[in-house]
């Protein structure tokens, strides 16, 4: 829980606002984590008052902060799934930080704003949740996807293959082998990225993420896919063009 008496300087707020603004419209969890590293919840919340153009990014940053401090889970209630007035353990856990946030916002629409933050939190957590489910025993994954309102990437239909919008070509489902290589490849490259390495090392679920990487690596080996980054990227690209 944050110290509610912490002071926030305009220089800190301006600096954070500028960095968030540079991320663009829809930064992901990794990008946001890099920017807010070392920042407090109060400092992030204060950015809301520094220019209407970055309010969306500031709320996404608040969501990223909550994801860092209350890591996503596929088996327990997540902070972004809590409801106002409920008595769940998670609601009790975030109560102090939520109170701090509301005080920093000092808005008549605190509940509405936090509702948006929760939506951003679920969006930003999606890749982590998919990775956690991918590491589960195969016979448990279907239920986990359902419980977390997610769809198995390998079962989703591929985009339409039309060469022009008026061709009427129906969509097709990509070969299951190709989809597995591409989806696992994305997770493998993200978890192996030098950019994400400090984020993973500092993450509260560091051991879980490292375990996921091991499973994803073994999955790619089983698919006889290359593990060297440039070769894997080219292989994924060649499969995507089929």
Describe, in plain words, how this protein is organized in 3D.
The protein is mainly α and about 240 residues long. The protein folds into two domains: about 10-125, no CATH class; about 150-240, no CATH class. It is about 60% helix and about 0% strand. The chain has eleven helices and no strands. It is globular, with a radius of gyration of 20 Å. The model is unreliable at about 160-170 (pLDDT under 50).
Mean pLDDT: 81
Coarse structural class: mainly alpha
The fraction of residues assigned to DSSP E strands is under 5%
Instruction: Report the helical percentage.
Output: 55-70%
The total of beta strands comes to 0
Q: Rough shape?
A: globular
- Our Rg estimate from Cα atoms comes to 20 Å
Listing every helix as H and every strand as E from the N terminus to the C terminus, the arrangement reads HHHHHHHHHHH
Spans of at least 5 consecutive residues whose pLDDT stays below 50 are: 159-172
Number of domains: 2
Q: Give the distance, in angstroms, between the N- and C-terminal Cα atoms.
A: 51 Å
Write the layout of secondary structure elements.
Blueprint: H1 10-22, H2 29-36, H3 41-46, H4 55-69, H5 89-105, H6 110-134, H7 138-147, H8 176-192, H9 197-202, H10 206-222, H11 229-240
Helix pairs in contact: 2-4, 4-6, 6-10, 8-10, 8-11
